[in-house]
Amino acid sequence: MHKRLTVGISFFVSTRVSDIWSNGAVQNIIFLFLLLKKIPSVEEVLLINAGDGDVLPEGLLLGDMPLQFYKIHEVADRLDVLIDGNAQMYNHEMKVVQDHGGKVVNYLVGNDFVIDMERCLFERPSGTVFNGFKYDSVWTLPHHERTCRSYFEVMHRCSVEIMPYIWSPMFLQKGIDSLKDPSSFFYKPSSEPKRIAIFEPNLNVVKTCHYPILVCEEAYRRDKKLFKNVYVTNTSHMKDNQTFQHFIGTTDMAIDKVATIEERFQTPYFLSQHTDVVVSHQWENQLNNLYLDVLFGGYPLVHNSEMLKCGYYYEPFNAKAGAEALLDALRNHDNRIDEYKAEAAAYLATVQYDHPENIRRHEQALHDLFIDKTAG
Q: What is the pLDDT of residues 311-335, one digit of tens each?
C-alpha cells in the first residue's frame, strides 16, 4: 500500500439498539474504530450509518465522543476499505466500493454458526443472512475460529482472518462514574460469607446459567458457611419454565433460599452493590467483555475459558472442578489480591485497542486485502 487508506465502518444507528450493556457488538465496533485511527497507514476512519435512525440513543454512552456519521452514498467513492460491522448493508451499497477498486470486509464478532442453527431449529427471527455478496475477506475473533471459520469460508466464499480480541474500560468507566460512589465498584476483601453473581445472558446456548449453578451447588454442598447469596441474574424470563424451575428449584441453594432468580442489571451497578465473586461458563465463546470488566474491578472470576490467562480456571463441563476453583476463590482470594490484580492488569494490557501488537495485526490485515492472491 503506497497511499494512506480511507476506511469506513458501518454502524447500526437505531433505537432498537439503545443500551451499551445489552449488545457487546456495539462496543466491538467502537473499539475497532478507535484502533484503526491509530494505524499509521490509515488516513481517516469514517463511521457509516447503516441503521434506520439518525440520532444515537443516550444509552450507548457515546454522547461525549465527537462522532460523525455518513450515509454510504456520501462517501462510497472515497473508501479504500469498507468494514461491515454486522449492520447488514445492502449489496448494491457495498458493490459501489468494490467497483472503484476498494475492498469490503465482513466483521463478524458473534458465534454465528451456533446462533444460526438455533434460528433454524427454533424458528427464531432471521439475523444476518447469506445473500451471495462476494466479500474480500471475513474478519472474526479467536474464540469463534473453531466453530465458525469453515462456516464463514464456505458460505462467504472468501478467506477468513482471525483478528485480536480488543477491549477498553472506557464504557465500564462511564458506568463506574455514574455510581453514587464510584469507589464502591472495586473489589473489597471481607471475612463475611460471600455474595456470588452469575451473569450469563441466557439468550442462546453458548452462555447460560446452568453450569455456573452446578458449580455453585457443588461448592455449596461442601461448605455452606462460605455462601451468603447466589444471584442468578438474567433469568427472570425463565422463571415460569418448568424445566428451569425443576432444575434450580431442587438445588440445596434454592431450598435454603440462598440462590435467587434475578432480573437483568447493568454490570457496574451489580458488581458494586451485590457481588464478591463471579462464576461463569461458556460454550465456544471464550472471550467476552464481561470477563474483562470483572477482572478490571479486581473481582475473583471463576471461569472455563482456556483463552483467558488469569482468574480461577476450571475444566469446561466439569462442575466438580468448578467447585474446587470456586472454593479456592472463596477461601483464598483475599490473601492474594495484589498478585491477582497484577496478573489481571498484565492480561488486560494485551487486549487494549491501543496495544501495539493489536494495531500491527490490524494494519497487516488491511495490507493483505490488496495483495493479489492469484499471482504467482
A: 999 999 999 999 999 999 999 999 9
Tell which CATH architecture fits domain 5-168+352-368: 3-Layer(aba) Sandwich (3.40)
**Strands (E) located in 141-226:** 160-162, 194-198
Using alpha carbons, select from 298, 20, 32 the residue that is nearest to residue 165.
Answer: 32
Written out in words, the top-level CATH class of the domain with range 174-351 is: alpha beta
pLDDT bin (cut points 50, 70, 90) of residue 374 is low
Of the listed ranges 41-50, 55-64, 214-223, 279-288, the one predicted with least confidence: 55-64
Please list, residue by residue across 110-137, b when 16 or more beta carbons sit within 10 angstroms of its beta carbon and e when fewer do. Answer: bbbbbbbeebeeeeeeeebeeeebebbb
Say how far apart CA 310 and CA 295 lie, in whole Å: 8
Strand partners, 6: 44
For the chain, what's the residue count?
A: 376
Report whether 24 contacts 288 (CB < 8 A). Answer: yes
How far apart, in whole angstroms, are the C-alpha atoms of residue 219 and residue 361? 42
CA 77 to chain centre: 32
Contact 83, 109 (CB under 8 A): no
Three cell numbers at 208?
Answer: 447460560
Distance CA 372, CA 49 (A): 30
Q: How confident is the model at residue 55 (pLDDT cuts 50, 70, 90)?
A: confident
pLDDT for res 376: 46
User: In this predicted model, which residue has the larger pLDDT, 161 or 124?
Assistant: 161
d(CA 164, CA 156): 21
| Spatial contact of 89 and 107, defined as CB atoms under 8 Å apart | no
Angle at the Cα of 263 from the Cα atoms of 334 and 267, rounded to 5 degrees: 45
Amino acid at 371: I
Eight-state DSSP code of residue 195: E
360 and 38 in contact (C-beta within 8 Å)?
A: no
Identical fold for domains 5-168+352-368 and 174-351, yes or no, is: yes
